[in-house]
Automatic annotation (TrEMBL):
Domain of life: Bacteria
A Pfam family annotated for this UniProt entry: DUF4235
UniProt protein name: DUF4235 domain-containing protein
Parts of the chain that traverse the membrane: 12-35, 55-73
InterPro entries, alphabetized: DUF4235
Keywords: Membrane, Transmembrane, Transmembrane helix
Species annotation: Nonomuraea salmonea
């Protein structure tokens, strides 16, 4: 049996959701980093001015935070899209 390809609408919506999620997660995590550490997030983690611990900590926080945000938002968006799509396929009177 042939594998079903995602439709074009979901591909566009999924891409936009991914972009918005990445931007928002970066802003939220940066804000949380500033509130927690009292310092701005390191811009260049390879700079010798940033300690190794701070660079690794920031990488872990951003990596885990961004991944969790993407998973949660993408799953929620896909469920809502599938529900909307199934409602459109129901014909009136059934």
């Amino acid at each position: 049996m042939a594998e079903e390809k995602p439709d074009i609408a979901w591909r566009v919506i999924g891409g936009l959701v991914g972009l918005v999620t990445a931007w928002a997660a970066r802003k939220v995590l940066g804000f949380a980093w500033t509130k927690t550490t009292g310092k701005e997030p390191p811009i260049d983690t390879e700079s010798p001015e940033v300690s190794l611990g701070e660079a690794i900590g920031y990488a872990v926080v951003m990596g885990v935070g961004m991944s969790v945000a993407q998973i949660v938002v993408n799953r929620t968006a896909k469920k809502r899209y599938d529900a909307w799509k199934s409602l459109k396929q129901v014909t009136p009177g059934q």
